[in-house]
From TrEMBL, chain A:
Gene3D superfamilies: NagB/RpiA/CoA transferase-like (3.40.50.10420). It comes from the Bacteria. Residues 117-214 form the LUD domain. This is L-lactate dehydrogenase complex protein LldG. InterPro entries: FTHF_cligase-like_sf, LUD_dom, NagB/RpiA_transferase-like. Pfam families: LUD_dom (PF02589). It comes from Microlunatus flavus.
From TrEMBL, chain B:
Residues 487-504 have a biased composition (Basic and acidic residues). It holds the Pfam family Fer4_8. Residues 90-311 form the LUD domain. Residues 485-504 are annotated as: Disordered. GO terms for biological process: lactate metabolic process. InterPro entries: 4Fe4S_Fe-S-bd, 4Fe4S_Fe_S_CS, FTHF_cligase-like_sf, Helical_ferredxn, LUD_dom, LutB/LldF, LutB_C, NagB/RpiA_transferase-like. Keywords: 4Fe-4S, Electron transport, Iron, Iron-sulfur, Metal-binding, Repeat, Transport. This is L-lactate dehydrogenase complex protein LldF. It comes from the Bacteria. Residues 328-395 form the 4Fe-4S ferredoxin-type domain. One of its GO terms (molecular function) is metal ion binding. Residues 413-491 form the Lactate utilization protein B C-terminal domain.
Amino acid sequence: MSARDDVLARIADAHRLAPSPDLPYDAVERAYRGAEVPGPDAGALVDLLVDRLLDYKALVRRTTPDGLAGTVAEALRERGATSLVVPEGVDPAWLASSDVRVVADPGPAGPLTVDALDTADGVLTGCALAVAATGTLVLDGTAGQGRRAVTLVPDYHLCVVRADQVVADVPQAVAGLEPTRPTTMISGPSATSDIELNRVEGVHGPRTLEVVLVEDAGPDRG
Amino acid sequence: MSAVMLGMPGAPPTSPRGVGHLRGEESFPAAARHSLADTQLRANLGHATRTIRGKRAAVVAELPDWEELREAGRQLKVHTMAHLPAYLVQLEEAVTARGGVVHWARDAAEANAIVVDLVRGTGSDEVVKVKSMATQEIALNEALEAAGIAAFETDLAELIVQLGHDKPSHILVPAIHRNRAEIREIFLREMGDVDPALSDDPAALANAARLHLRRKFLSARVAVSGANFAVAETGTLSVVESEGNGRMCLTLPQTLITVMGIEKVVPRYRDLEVFLQLLPRSSTGERMNPYTSLWTGVTPGDGPQEFHLVLLDNGRSAVLSDAEGRDALNCIRCSACLNVCPVYERAGGHAYGSVYPGPIGAILSPQLTGVEDNASLPYASSLCGACYDVCPVKINIPDILVHLRAEHTEAQAAGRRVPTAEAAAMQAAAVVMRSPRRWRLALRGGRLGRLLGRRRGVIGEVPLPVLKQWTDARDLTRPPTSTFRDWWAREHGDGQPSDEGERP
């Protein structure tokens, strides 16, 4: 008997010895606030996201579509970044006011080496969505987000989030994701609680996470 | 085919002896005696568990639907365990369809052999490792070492344990028994490339770990991980972590080997909406841990191009065959029960012998190994119930502890012709308690105990058979000068409960 058949047979034996209560999948009680529960309005969501991001020691800048290129340039200048990894699909307009050396990562066609990622000063991406209640950015490898290594090896990650990408909580985020894409949920810079259970920022992932939030200006925002 | 036709099957085998880290070298009371004498250990544990209890309570209080999430988590686990074969087969199909290879292992030795073969097949003689309870359980590092393959632990706490030639003492924070000064000493002694001016500031220590492991990450060809969740519907695996060492291992090497217990499967991707809320808040007391990675088989051009998933039984099907104990398999390894346990806080993780310490370990380890191999663990609890209150999937740990105590007592009785001292005492107590008259006399006799403990006001160790076993780990209060019945008779006279009649 193969190990596979053996393990499956053992579980079947266990079920015969101790029959389980019948609880169909659809009968599982989901009385918690699910994806269908409307969250706060868009403005309040962005405020909550900013509060959570700051709480977990991310840097945050808020701007408008017109101010985006200037805000990105300001962030890079203050960081002192002169070379920047930019994955395929990032809108070149984001960098229109910056004078950094762009290190393009064309993705699978001709990816940068790990060492090239390691020597760059940072990386600029967008995201798939952001979760307000937990201060989480979600990247799924589609256009403008890069393969997973590009947001991991550089020590500085600058991420652009549009207000319409912000969802209320984890259920809305899970509902909005395509499961088979390689997905990374990022909540603040790399951290550890391994020394006396105190959170300390800065271990193996990017030690600085900076978020640029883009909100529509004007009275009908949101 | 019905069970009647086949007869009832035997219980599935428990985790075999001789391999893995589920059995300690001494009993819990003996091991706890060493750790209780270590004041530094007790100070470290007290400080760390107090910190995490406060953080957990604060982030759990933020969610108005916490109890509803716990109940959904519990029901999802109950449903999954009842349909485990179907979900495992579905998981295998989904992972295979996306370019992964699925392996099955009956026990620790088989899982280790599979991983050793896979690593050899890559031509590499070293692996980087993401913290994983399953690979600690099966002693994979030792098996790799015996095969000439170096395993580098990359989680900070695991690194501290590995460099300190130490054993893990906590599910989440294996080095919880070490404070910052001790960690600094270990790094200075073992890393070889550390600035002697390194301070014991946690940020400086974290940076030392970053520098130490950086080249290793950037050049590693093979990684070994565990898994927090595996989605049957889509074949998606998930690792939840903080430092980015997990992302390094899951992303940069060419080959990824993931070892997971068969109980980690969840039915659908949607179910992550429950567990990704329950786990981080219960575990590190964060709204969300810094990094959660989700991957499905192999993605061309992104991450490892070879992916192996090893599904491990190692006694789990045996746990499933006990209707009263099997909820122990529902555990999502958050470690909240350790942090609230008054016994864990004082005795520490090493006293439990197994890689699974604390309340969850006290019910999981004896079931994985068979209760006779971890017979003292079901007693390593005061049954206060704090573990049940914090469990994110509502495992009734105190009930299972009592169930396992009964199982152990019955197994002992069945194996002896002469009853144990405890069984004899219980029988004698039953005879006395059946008769109110005998009970009254026995209580008065108890006043003889006042002869003991006159000096300290409590009765310490009594060097007599049976009494010694009870008193060597417990102080008894000195009996009062009069019994409750005598006091009642004095105060209320005729209200005294009747001494007449024997109960059946």
